[in-house]
Amino acid sequence: MRNQLITMAACLSIFSFTACQQSQNAQSAENDTTQQVAPDTTATVAETPAADTSAAAALTTVMSAPEKVKAGKPVLVKFTVTNNSDKEAEFCKWHTPFEEKFLNSFFDIQDSKGESVQYQGVMAKRIMPPPAESFIKVPAKGTVSAEIDLTKGYKISAPGTYKVAYQGDGISGLTNVNTVSVTIE
């Protein structure tokens, strides 16, 4: 019985991981099936994105952080989402700084030794499909930004350089986000 519950929980986790993006893609397809979007050409991204005609493909996300932060001070990461299209686009705010607090681990943070930094925040369960208020609308040719303090969700305290990569794209739909480095002094 316990193994069945664990298996069922794992299946639900996988489902919830992709459901937000699928819901967003379905909404985009209903709104405009002929939209052509140029691929993301952000210089800090190593890969060229695959062809995607959804509204989410029009969104470019850039992450920024200060180069150096004093130990014990907030480590703020800023997310800026730009809509490169001529039409309004949206993304799911779940697993992004737009939630204004950590409700899941959506960053992969590595210390100077290449070891993962431990996530110490909550792990929220989500209802599916995401309700309408879970989406952030980005006006045509517009931008939206949000900041979050990494120390509120991750154990970042020792001096050193930390590499921060975003890993919440399966929920939010924000892909090819650059990585940043922060040095704690």
Structure characteristics:
disordered N terminus; 4-stranded mixed β-sheet; 185 residues; alpha+beta; single chain; 2 helices; Immunoglobulin-like; 3-stranded antiparallel β-sheet; 9 strands
Q: Give the CATH class of the domain at 56-184.
A: Mainly Beta
**CATH architecture assignment name of the domain at 56-184:** Sandwich
Order of helices and strands: HEEEEEEEEHE
* Average pLDDT figure: 77
Q: Which term fits the overall shape?
A: globular
Low-confidence regions: 1-53
> How far apart are the first and last residues' alpha carbons, in Å?
50 Å
User: Oligomerization state of this entry?
Assistant: single chain
The percent range for helix content is 10-25%
Strand content: 25-35%
In DSSP terms, counting alpha (H) and pi (I) runs of 4 or more, how many helices?
2
Please give the number of β-strands: 9
Strand order of the largest sheet: 2-9-8-5
Backbone CA Rg = 17 Å
Tell me the structural class. alpha+beta
Largest sheet: 4 strands, mixed
Write the CATH fold name of the domain at 56-184.
Immunoglobulin-like
